[in-house]
Amino acid sequence: MSNKVLRKLDYWQSILGLSEYRVIVSRVSPLQITHHDEKTGGDFIGVVLDEKSREIWIITTRSLQEEDIVHELLHIREPKMDHGEVVLETESLIFSRNQMHLEFLSLQKER
Ligand SMILES: [Zn+2]
After folding, report:
1. How far is CA 1 from CA 37, 58, 77, 105, in A?
2. How big is the CA angle at 91 (ends 90 and 96), to the nearest 5 degrees?
3. Record's superkingdom (predicted)?
4. Of 52, 45, 51, which Cα lies nearest the Cα of 26?
5. pLDDT tens digits, residue range 38-60?
6. pTM for this predicted structure
7. Ligand 1 centroid vs 46 CA: distance in angstroms?
C-alpha cells in the first residue's frame, strides 16, 4: 500500500470512528472476479468486515482513490445504507472536508 493510501485510510478511519479496526487492502486481478452475467474482468471494489479479528478487508482490482476509501469505509460504518446513499454521503463528506480545508487556507492568508 502506498503511503498516500495509508494516510487517507488513517484519516477517514478516524473521521468515521473506525480506528479500532485494521484495514487490509487486497489487490486482485479483474480475472479473479466473476460478475452476475458470468463474465470476468472489469473493475471491482468490495468490502468485508471481520468483527472477530477486528479487520476490514477491501478487495479491489485497481489502486484506491480517496472516494473509494470513504465509500467502502462508509458501507462498514452504515451497513443499512444502500449503495446509492453511500455514493451521496461520500460526496458530501469529501466536499465538506475540502470546504474546511479552503476555509483553513483563507484564515492562514488573513494573518
Ligand atoms: Zn457501494
Report:
1. 31, 12, 22, 29
2. 100
3. Bacteria
4. 45
5. 777 788 999 999 999 999 999 99
6. 0.88
7. 8
